[in-house]
What does this fold into?
Amino acid sequence: MTEPPNYGRPTEFGDLSPFTLERTEYIGVSRTPVCCLPVTLGGKLLGFLWGSISVDEDAAGFRPVHGAGAVGFDAGGPWRGRLKRARDKGVAPADAVRRWIGEPEDPRAGGVPADAVETILPGSDAVLALAARSPRWATPDSRPGG
It folds into this structure.
């Protein structure tokens, strides 16, 4: 009987150059204070856009409200793209989020109303909690007015 080949442990492979693990997006979790803005779609609260305030942390994201279902999930794509482009330009996370205040509403991602009030929260976990206790999205599988 022959022994199975020993492929080694991952740490035994040595330097994996030229492979890099360079991060190209904001981190999705913050343990430091974040600015948080409401995102609406068709006049209904869809979720929250947030970005870290600390210069030591490079985190931002979008979190749909509880019950937003496919509409909330669908909105996340455009927000991730917008945030990635901001990071590519070297924009601080909080500034990347604030930049969307009052911009026209996207039919898929919604928008941050011009009169939106910024909330400072202790971290991204607080955004998650806020989204969970916000009013449920009434029709998760259809767009407002659809």
In short: Residues 34-133 form one domain. The chain has three helices and four strands.
